Amino acid sequence: MSTPNVNPHPYVGMWVTKDGYIRHELLPNNRYDEARGNRKSAYQGRYTILGDHIEYVDDTGFTADGDFRDSVLYHAGMVLYRVK
């Protein structure tokens, strides 16, 4: 039995602030891992993407959201760029 080829959502991957201090990794299993400075995995949780809107719920229950516009993620006052 073979596993079907499932393509991850186009927004899956690493997103970083211009200075590289904040890094959001959107994983293909609808989980995310956020690093801040030298603190790897500062926040972790799940996300849902509807169109160009993302909703975050971290593992403590804190919620946040953001929007993707022109290949840029605007999230909680931050601007993150895709790392390819």
TrEMBL record:
A Pfam family matched in the record: Atu4866
Protein name, UniProt field: Putative ligand-binding protein with streptavidin-like fold
Native source organism of the sequence: Paenibacillus cellulosilyticus
